[in-house]
Amino acid sequence: MTRAEVLQDLLANGTEHSSGTLRRSAAELDLPLADLLVIAGHPVPAHLRPPERDPEAVYAFINRGTYFSHSQLASLKDFVVSLAEERPAVEAVESAALIRKPSGSGEIVTGFIQNRGFPVDRLHYVTALAKSTIRRLLHGSPIGPRALRVVAFLLGWRFADLAVVAGVEPEPGEVVRGLPCHHLGQVFIAAIPLTTEQLWQAVAEADRIGDERTNNRDTCPDTG
Questions:
Q1: Is 31 left (phi over 0), alpha (psi -120 to 50) or beta?
Q2: Among 69, 127, 185, 222, which is most exposed with the fewest C-beta within 10 angstroms?
Q3: Strand, helix or coil for residue 35
Q4: Does the reported pTM lie above 0.85?
Q5: pLDDT for 33-76, tens place per residue?
Q6: CA distance 53 to 64
Q7: Contact assessment for residue 200 and residue 60, using Cβ atoms and an 8 Å cutoff
Q8: Can you tell me the distance from the alpha carbon of 4 to that of 20, in angstroms, rounded to the nearest whole number?
């Protein structure tokens, strides 16, 4: 099965899949298990969600790295991973909530955002998308391919994958310039376990690695 076929199957039949099957799919697709649980309508257990933390720290962190090169992003991700490894292991306990098919793409994308602990009321600042576009996205209303690309980089998803989930068709011959890629969002995924204190440490490290006023962004080695 192609990546698109796997995701389409999860959208259509995810409630029938076991947690073991979803774990294997997450590993094969290199996507967060928590996100695939959302698509499939399974509850996301607490150990896969971020801890309670100061929204100011989250906002400050996700504002970093937008203009980083891929080598700078890799350095920041390594630092974030090292911080996450300092935390005591959290017991993996399956949620007792019911398995229920999502009502639509809005619920799914909202679940992705919750999985990362992003402050919804500030997404328009981080993405530079209009508040109305953010509202349409979260309510499952159609948004354009370019806007969805912005959301994809924030979530750490390839655009082609997120387009399947959101039901958005890429525009033929679309030329995309001036946007970060999913590697930035993968740094944010790595930061999911971090506490408020650790997020501030990551902010300081990001400021050490690069100056946000300098655009070092380079071509993404991946496609999609």
A1: beta
A2: 222
A3: helix
A4: yes
A5: 999 999 999 999 999 999 999 999 999 999 888 888 899 999 99
A6: 18
A7: yes
A8: 20
| Encoded tokens for 130 | 């209009």
What are the residues whose beta carbons fall under 8 Å from the beta carbon of 13, sequence distance 6 or more? none
Which pairs count as long-range contacts for 54-59, CB under 8 Å and 24+ apart, including other chains?
54/196, 54/199, 55/119, 55/122, 57/196, 57/199, 57/200, 57/203, 58/117, 58/118, 58/119, 58/199, 59/119, 59/122, 59/125, 59/126
Q: Whose structure tokens read 């891929």?
A: 70
CA distances from 120 to 6, 10, 58, 103, 137 (A): 28, 25, 11, 19, 12
For 74-90, what is the mean pLDDT?
86
Cβ–Cβ < 8 Å for 125, 60: no
Dig out the tokens for 211 from the structure: 């100056």
